[in-house]
Structures
1.
Amino acid sequence: MLVTVTNTPQDYAWGSTTLIADLEHRVPSGRPEAEVWFGDHPGSPSHVTDGRTLGAWLAEDAAGTGAPEHLPYLMKLLAAASSLSIQVHPSREEAVEAFATEDAAGIPRDAPERTYRDRNHKPELIVALSETFTALAGVRELDATRRLLALLGDGGAAVAERLSGRDAAAAVRDTVEWLLAGDSTAAIAGIVAAAQDAASEKFSAELDLVRRLAADFPGDRGIGVALLMNLVVLRRGEGLFVPAGVLHAYQSGLGVEIMAASDNVLRGGLTPKHIDVAELIRVLDPTPGPAPVLRPHERDGVRRFAPDVPDFALTRVAVAPGEEVAVGLDGTAIALATGGEVVVDGAKSRAGERMTPGQAVVVTPDEQRMVITGEGELYIAQPGARHADGAS
């Protein structure tokens, strides 16, 4: 069974006014358009053609097709014009425990000060749709960070001193906590002031980032944390996977994102939303290392991004005129067109769903596979293979 699903963009302040509209070949609304959700998450569920939510359709019409009552993943178009919050996501075990603690404390589940909205983890993957997509992800190797701080002279000295311990992970954890919750106001001001005049061929992008963040978020403690993180620029079609505990903050560009179906976000800075530094530090993975770029498995024009989580996998299909590409189903899938014009069929119902960029269709497991023709590009969200085999 195939069914078209739609949704309206979320107007978060960091969203782009043009990127999603340009993808869909329509006139911009004039408002920020940050995310379009494709899934049954109650925060912003997609709707089928008769107006029902996707969740209602799955419960009422998809019975007998092998579709689950709830999708294990959430797919999004994400368009950033300025920095998202510096954030981490919990593991499933951490989420279950903390959700129960907040319930026991009597914090309403929709309260602004609530940190845990559900009991799930939230690993996530983003693949660039724009020519470049810029993100902060993971903690940079400390030798490189020390060289960057040295360019700031006295402005970087306080942070450099805290990173001087022999245990790199412990030093990072201590420094992040001090930057976000300690007496770091003068140190942040020193970093910003020094960055205005600093110059470096190797770290020019990082210095530019500090200047931009200082203009967008004056005095924000998150500026100091951003200085510790890997700055990565994805090219179109490249992906970044963020597991539990990894610091990240997307900066600019258009991407297709997939994640476990959760809304658990622990924020530390660069945002007007609720910040919970203590909980961020509790779940933080402070281990320095390279940015978590994920390489796809590629065959015959099909790229499959399959991180080691049971909740989701993401497949990119590019099809040329006269070609026919078949993709097997590991569960209920959502196909999102991102370029050209493609036609999607199932093995059973040769529906011939014609799709242009921004349009999406749900395909139930009884179809067994999807067949794509036309000329263009689409991304297919599915459960991870282990989820299809019964893993949870």
2.
Amino acid sequence: MRDYKHIEVTPITGILGAEIAGVDLTQTVSDAALMEIEQAFGDHAVIVFRDQAMGFEDQKRFTRMFGEFGFEPYVKTMPDHPEIIEVIKEASESGMLNFGGNWHSDWSFQEAPPRATILHAKDIPPYGGDTAFANMYAAYETLSQGMRDMLDGLNVVHSARRPYGTEAKLFGREKRAMTIINSEEAHAEQVHPAVRTVPETGRKALFINPVYAIRFENMTERESRPLLDFLNTHATRIELTCRVRWQVNTLVMWDNRCVQHNAMNDYDGFRRQLHRTTVAGERPYLAERGGNGGMARSPAEAAAG
């Protein structure tokens, strides 16, 4: 267990997630505390802060501490705060699918998907609406050596066409609190490695998900489906997950590069509202194993020799 001096860190499970106390995110966070938050983020991939009565500017300031804002392509953002998406399901939207209600990694169809997602809870049902998270480091590491070797040489085609394409039916056509933007641009395809290296940790993570990963490069969807189905089921086994129960003013941040998440849709008849920002990320890559003690190197390090 790492020794923290400026924050308190309590793991949620032995595989993923931690709650962090001892810091007020409505105030300026010291450099020392921020360094420890980054360490906890690298160690646990999902970090939870309770009782943070944050406004819009507080959340935006917190997000900027970790990088630039990510780009939100297919969901309407707040008019006065284009960096923020209001994730809302109204009490009247009973029987409808919810936003984020399937295992996925945010915007993996982008050339450089988000490094992190940050959600701040505003209005929470009395029960239900938890978010589950799956550890994609562990998903990769618990595969056989033969499967890992094969996946290290594969690329995956990602696309937003299923939920956001012009013919998408995932969200239906009912009137909703959230405005989904269906677009021809969502049919574009982006190729990423099936296994990616997270620069800060040097660890390999499986980088697939059932919403946006549609096939392996140079294979058909039909040919790809059996292996993708196996990997998606393997990655979300209960022993590789944690689950966060929301409370008003809870803030959760997770690493999209090594985590999938799933918003539980079990609160019909109640309102749920959260504010979402994302931190811009890098283009996914799988680092080569070099002569530096087996540590993975980024493309910049490899180029520099």
